[in-house]
């Protein structure tokens, strides 16, 4: 990632940096980290290899930048869970946000899945630190609502895991989902009411 002590990027520098990250996202989401090369990223970005290496020291640097940005974006809806809100509506807002993110950002979801399947070598510190803290906070809110009888009692962390699995499946396995549903179906539109009904039945009191 960029050194925060450096002066702000110019408009052209920011544009080129964004082009590199967008090109890298396309390459990594298809080939994974091991299968991707700087040459492929440069071609996808429409820039020369030396230009790419001017902005990022290595393929690893680009990958870490993408993953960190993605994780921040992925966790934002969880951070917004309001302990003073209506419990069931807060959960459903989170489920809908995660499904919408899978619809809008399928490449990002697949990039994250690739990293996890490889043992998360570039995210070990984040997964054990910041991610755990955010999940612990959300789990504590959920547990508090359950203890107060405002949600049906379930293990809160596994509830969160289930939401991740059921929403991100539509991005990570989109080709399979569309093949099974056939023409004329929008899996994300159809999944919304199903997931809403499912979690209301599980958590309703």
In short:
The chain has 205 residues and is mostly helical.
Map the helices and strands.
Layout: H1 11-35, H2 38-45, H3 49-55, H4 59-79, H5 87-104, H6 106-117, H7 124-128, H8 130-147, H9 156-172, H10 174-181, H11 187-203
* Architecture per CATH nomenclature, i.e. the level-2 architecture of the largest domain: Orthogonal Bundle
Strand content: under 5%
CATH superfamily descriptor of the largest domain: Tetracycline Repressor, domain 2
Main β-sheet description: none
What is the string of helix and strand elements? HHHHHHHHHHH
Explain how this protein is built.
The model has no long low-confidence stretch (mean pLDDT 89). This protein folds into two domains: 57 residues, Homeodomain-like (Arc Repressor Mutant, subunit A, Orthogonal Bundle), CATH 1.10.10; 141 residues, Tetracycline Repressor, domain 2. The termini are far apart. It has eleven helices and no strands. The chain has 205 residues and is an all-alpha fold.
What labels would you give this structure?
single chain, 205 residues, mainly alpha, Arc Repressor Mutant, subunit A, Tetracycline Repressor, domain 2
């Amino acid at each position: 990632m960029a050194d925060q002590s450096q002066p702000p990027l110019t408009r052209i520098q920011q544009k080129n940096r964004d082009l590199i990250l967008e090109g890298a996202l396309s390459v990594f989401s298809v080939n994974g980290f091991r299968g991707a090369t700087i040459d492929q990223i440069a071609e996808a970005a429409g820039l020369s290899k030396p230009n790419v290496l001017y902005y990022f020291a290595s393929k690893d640097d680009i990958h870490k930048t993408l993953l960190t940005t993605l994780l921040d974006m992925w966790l934002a809806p969880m951070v917004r869970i309001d302990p003073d809100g209506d419990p069931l509506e807060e959960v459903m807002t989170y489920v809908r946000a995660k499904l919408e993110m899978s619809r809008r950002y399928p490449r990002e979801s697949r990039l994250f899945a690739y990293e996890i399947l490889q043992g998360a070598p570039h995210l070990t510190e984040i997964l054990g630190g910041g991610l755990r803290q955010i999940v612990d906070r959300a789990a504590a809110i959920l547990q508090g609502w359950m203890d107060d009888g405002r949600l049906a009692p379930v293990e809160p962390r596994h509830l969160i895991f289930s939401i991740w699995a059921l929403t991100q499946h539509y991005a990570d396995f989109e080709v399979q989902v569309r093949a099974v549903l056939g023409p004329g179906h929008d899996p994300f539109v159809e999944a919304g009411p199903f997931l809403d009904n499912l979690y209301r039945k599980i958590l309703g009191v």
